[in-house]
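Checklist before submission:
- one chain only
- standard amino acids only
- sequence pasted in full

Submission:
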Amino acid sequence: MFINALSNAVVFNQAHPLEISNYINNHIGHHTLVYESVKNCNYYPSQLKHRNFAELGLSSIRYGSEVKIHCADLNDVYHFQVVTHGQCCWQFEEESLLLKPGQALMMNPHENMDISYSADCEKVIVKVPQIFIDDLCLEQNRDIPSSGVLFERKVIELNKSLGFLSLIDAILHEANDSEIDFLQLQSPYRNLLIRKLFQQFDNNTQNSQDPELSDRCFTTLLQYINSNIKQDIGIEELANVAHISVRTVYNLFAKHYHNTPKAFIKQTKLKHLRKEIALNSDIRNVTQIALDYGFMHLGRFSSDYKKMFSELPSETLKRR
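Returned file contents:
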């Protein structure tokens, strides 16, 4: 399964398990490593491969000895883990799950568990940032509980879902291809993977009873921005106005305008300002109106204005 996956992304080969553990802590997920059988060995058939692809973390891990991992917090990321060799046991507070080759599960953020590897265990791990999970919920009008999205603790057989298995294999091989460096070429793989995860694992989200809820929230945000366009509008302020989270504010602007709230507010200020210069005959001074709209750095203001409208604000005033 996943033959030669990430073969061009080897970070460690025959390294001490602690070296692998330290790298994992910095790039994949926080944990504490407990090991016994390797203390007096000088040879470690261990290996770690790691590569970022489509803003996902892709890893293949083999410690080369029996080790136990204590994992207390994944820090706002999800792990999709597949056992490819040997076996691995997840011990939760109330249950344990033993996975063998071809079996996989989802790990949620902020879960406490102990993970025991057999000496020949090898796993593939896909690290998925929480923001992409939330984005799909927003796109599909799913209600996100206050506890966040939690996937069912269930073992799946990848051989019974050949389409999903082929997708993971394709992602691992594409990540090996140095020619695919552009995010716009990579992101469709990520989006499809996340949709497949929602199909494979039950979770605590549900479709919103009002499919227009996100659109109504966004309309509220736009109305507030336009009504207070000369003010310094913060992201938390917008979240409070619409009674949503800061992350949802970002998600809404990404969904509707493919932009950040901050960039959208600046562009909207510039549009209002330009309209006022063009139509208000009382305006004689570009500097004063720029300050009225909160543009304190006049050189940067002129540069942004010209980039957006292909002319300087003074030229707009002169044309009027």
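Reviewer check: The mean pLDDT is 88.
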